[in-house]
């Protein structure tokens, strides 16, 4: 049961990541992340 929940969470995470990468605003998002790390 726990394994299934982890698998679903991982799938959602991977899907969200794919959406962010394919998004034209990804560069802007990346820049914002870099600015946050400073």
Largest sheet: none
- Strand proportion, as a percent range, falls in under 5%
Overall pLDDT, averaged? 83
Helix share, percent: over 70%
Q: What structural class do helix, strand and pairing data support?
A: mainly alpha
Please give the domain count: 1
The radius of gyration is: 14 Å
Characterise the protein shown here.
The chain has 38 residues and is mainly alpha-helical. The chain has two helices and no strands.
Short overview:
By secondary structure, the protein is mostly helical.
SSE blueprint and pairings:
Layout lengths: L1 H21 L3 H12 L1
Key words describing this protein structure:
single chain; 38 residues; mainly alpha; 2 helices; elongated
